[in-house]
């Protein structure tokens, strides 16, 4: 850490020198222009670049299958606008995996392809992305997935179960967008200013989006389990699970409402109500477990796993409420 004294020039302008090492590392010299971003009692300074596009290169020679897909996703989330994938010779299998990764991410398109290089570019303007809208969309999709997964269970509707499984890709795609936006706010204060949100709020949204992504995962798990069930679930068990679901929806909605409100008192009230509801849901789930004792072991195990997934989604709603409480707390 270095310190500098603030001086006054011209009687009205405050000036302060900047460390020479930092200036050299960031190509700042006499005549350069820098940008200032106020945030609370802090002031961030960054050099003005000629091109905001960030480019990254990755050697994919030894990457195959899901490992290659994960590598492309990592480059995307890290914030690269142009991703160059290189190898001595890119195989057909690798090209297929790269296309699959590109199609699963918002805004990415393959621009160039040669035998040893593939160039991918993010065509979206990052300044037009909204982390609030992305999280809101995740909330709607995850909630509808959970509802439809339980409808599929009631009717043993295999088509609806498959549809729920496919929709998980939409939640994952939005989760990647939220992660990319959040990491951008950590990297540069300009991203936070363009969003119009403090970085702490972006962190709260990112944490909550992770919980919504897990809710989508459990809805998908319920759909997969439903596909394994070959006999109708007793009506009393179905009704009990639907009542549990209603309580879970109340928890998730309460947690998200607490997160999105700008009224600290209202957020605190909503979040504390949610925490109480989560405790009650644990008791409801235990009551369903008692009903499952009447089923044959194999059937009871599958339905029991579904009950567990439904109750776990309440825990994730409770985690969102905890995040809302932290967001509503006074800043130190």
UniProtKB/TrEMBL annotation:
What Gene3D superfamilies does the entry give? Answer: Phosphate transport system protein phou homolog 2, domain 2
Q: Report any one BP term from Gene Ontology.
A: intracellular phosphate ion homeostasis
Name of the protein this chain belongs to: Histidine kinase
Cite a single GO MF annotation: kinase activity
One Pfam family matching this protein: MazE_antitoxin
User: Where on the tree of life does the source sit, at the highest rank?
Assistant: Archaea
Which UniProt keywords are given for this protein, alphabetically ordered?
A: Kinase, Transferase
Do you know which PANTHER family this protein is assigned to?
PHOSPHATE REGULATORY PROTEIN-LIKE PROTEIN, PHOSPHATE-SPECIFIC TRANSPORT SYSTEM ACCESSORY PROTEIN PHOU
